[in-house]
UniProtKB/TrEMBL annotation:
GO terms for biological process: amino acid import across plasma membrane; neurotransmitter transport. The lineage of its organism: Eukaryota, Metazoa, Chordata, Craniata, Vertebrata. It is a multi-pass membrane protein. The chain crosses the membrane at residues 6-26, 47-70, 150-171, 183-210, 230-247, 259-284, 318-339, 360-386, 392-412, 432-455, 467-492. This is Sodium- and chloride-dependent glycine transporter 1. The gene is Slc6a9. Pfam families: SNF (PF00209). Belongs to the sodium:neurotransmitter symporter (SNF) (TC 2.A.22) family. SLC6A9 subfamily. It is found in: Cell membrane. It comes from Mus caroli. The keyword Transferase does not apply. InterPro entries: Na/ntran_symport, Na/ntran_symport_glycine_GLY1, SNS_sf.
């Protein structure tokens, strides 16, 4: 938690504000904003690649939550007892001594759950076996795909249909949906929190959550995880912040927004920790073991440890329905942003009148592609690939992209220029703290975390399964595929830029293009004020602005004039 808050203050909030102000000033998506320095447009492509990877596997997580949600519509949760066809003799439930195993066990231990728990390291819970042997039908190797799990495939289709329908009219429709998806989880969290803290043993779990383990403070992995969590939680370097901010009104106070959203977001994460660990503490108390024995991470927490703890509560299906409904809503909120990032980047990049009018078809195309690419993740080896993508495709590449974005804006475009842009947009320059973080602190922290993460690198594992070398190599290739966009596009831009010498080409490729600046003519003041009326002959390129990003008078069929406007 300590590294988490350090990363929030010195990296999370400053980078969040930078991306919001960047997108809002130019009213462009993650590709269009790089008119600020065309040579670094590869950063935008890197963001698109990251968003693509996350969008593919994130919807698989949502589809598993859908599956558990539908499975909770029963009198007894299917992962409560060990008397199911898929259970093994090692299964040991936590509810009833008579249902501890469905195989042989020492007679002396038949009535003592705590002793049974400590007796064998092979003890597996009904929820773990339900997850591994029934939901996933997990194969023994990442290369052994087995069959596609049809129930998961069906849920994946449902989740993509929901995402598409919510985005069918772009930010106009998703902007309304997120009022529900962003607020209702707080209601569920509060209900689960009140239920959790009133349980016996909840205090033990909360103290385990809050007690620092100072011996881990020197581990680079802890700091790397904190950075990844901040980037993941706030959405930095995904391109989503730039995209959503591009729909803001030009003079919107994005400084206030960034501080409020960042703090509220991370406070929610801490609040959710109380919800989780109060119930894990209750479960540990019930088993008579330490909280660390029942706590888990990754999919194991969401789909094994917490669902098992819920079986101990009265009316457990109700709590399970609430929990997985909350997971679905939280996941959908993220997925909206990822899909909108890709669609907006494509539409802004093509920029002609046809694609502006056919944006719904672009959204449909991206959704169908995402569904097809997600099918392998619903196979029996799917969870191995999902964790591989999660660990490599969207971890250190995020911090690299953010670091390069900071350096390119502060040192290539120039910090004074950018501070003037913000003053022109907001009416005041960025506070001194943000100026220092953008120029020195944030890039330095990101750089050192990157170095130490490489030094202390450990190959990925899933429970006791060691990933083979070829799978780790694929993981590194996925990570590099987003970062490699930056030097490749820079070389491409250098080759096509005018100039007699390499230095001249470098200067021309990094200086802002002539159409960089506020999108609407009314906001082009100061150094952006047009001196003459642009004509097609002077090379000044004017692309159509997306209707959602401007108030464009449109004459209706009845001859009356109306205004298109959208609010997020």
């Amino acid at each position: 938690m300590f590294p988490y808050f350090i990363m929030l203050i010195f990296c999370g909030i400053p980078l969040f504000f930078m991306e919001l102000s960047f997108g809002q000033f130019a009213s462009q998506g993650c590709l269009g904003v790089w008119r600020i320095s065309p040579m670094f447009k590869g950063v935008g492509y890197g963001m698109m690649v990251v968003s693509t990877y996350i969008g593919i596997y994130y919807n698989v997580v949502i589809c598993i939550a859908f599956y558990y949600f539908f499975s909770s519509m029963t009198h007894v949760l299917p992962w409560t007892y060990c008397n199911n066809p898929w259970n093994t003799p090692d299964c040991a439930g936590v509810l009833d001594a008579s249902n501890l195993t469905n195989g042989s066990r020492p007679a002396a231990l038949s009535g003592n759950l705590s002793h049974l728990f400590n007796y064998t390291l092979q003890r597996t819970s009904p929820s773990e076996e339900y997850w591994r042997l029934y939901v996933l039908k997990l194969s023994d190797d990442i290369g052994n795909f087995g069959e596609v799990r049809l129930p998961l495939l069906g849920c994946l289709g449902v989740s993509w249909v929901v995402v598409f329908l919510c985005l069918i009219r772009g930010v106009k429709s998703s902007g309304k949906v997120v009022y529900f998806t962003a607020t209702f989880p707080y209601v569920v969290l509060t209900i689960l929190f009140v239920r959790g803290v009133t349980l016996e043993g909840a205090f033990t779990g909360i103290m385990y959550y809050l007690t620092p383990q100072w011996d881990k403070i020197l581990e680079a992995k802890v700091w790397g995880d904190a950075a990844s969590q901040i980037f993941y939680s706030l959405g930095c370097a995904w391109g989503g912040l730039i995209t959503m901010a591009s729909y803001n009104k030009f003079h919107n106070n994005c400084y206030r927004d960034s501080v409020i959203i960042s703090i509220t977001n991370c406070a929610t994460s801490v609040y959710a920790g109380f919800v989780i660990f109060s119930i894990l503490g209750f479960m540990a108390n019930h088993l008579g073991v330490d909280v660390s024995r029942v706590a888990d991470h990754g999919p194991g927490l969401a789909f094994v440890a917490y669902p098992e703890a819920l079986t101990l509560l009265p009316i457990s299906p109700l709590w399970s329905l609430l929990f997985f409904f909350m997971l679905i809503l939280l996941g959908l909120g993220t997925q909206f942003c990822l899909l909108e990032t890709l669609v907006t980047a494509i539409v802004d990049e093509v920029g002609n009148e046809w694609i502006l009018q056919k944006k719904t078809y672009v959204t449909l195309g991206v959704a169908v592609a995402g569904f097809l690419l997600g099918i392998p993740l619903t196979s029996q080896a799917g969870i191995y690939w999902l964790l591989l993508m999660d660990n490599y495709a969207a971890s250190f590449s995020l911090v690299v992209i953010s670091c390069i974005m900071c350096v390119s804006i502060m040192y290539i475009y120039g910090h004074r220029n950018y501070f003037q842009d913000i003053q022109m947009m907001l009416g005041f320059p960025p506070p001194l703290f943000f100026q220092i973080c953008w120029r020195f602190v944030s890039p330095a922290i990101i750089f050192f975390i990157l170095i130490f993460t490489v030094i202390q690198y450990r190959p990925i594992t899933y429970n006791h399964y060691q990933y083979p070398g070829w799978a780790v190599a694929i993981g590194f290739l996925m990570a590099l595929s987003s970062v490699i966009c930056i030097p490749l596009y820079a070389l491409f831009q250098l080759c096509r830029t005018d100039g007699d010498t390499l230095l001249q080409r470098l200067k021309n490729a990094t200086k802002p293009s002539r159409d960089w600046g506020p999108a609407l003519l009314e906001h082009r003041t100061g150094r952006y004020a047009p001196t003459t009326t642009p004509s097609p002959d002077d090379g000044f390129e004017v692309q159509p602005l997306h209707p959602d990003k401007a108030q464009i008078p449109i004459v209706g069929s009845n001859g009356s004039s109306r205004f298109q406007d959208s609010r997020i």
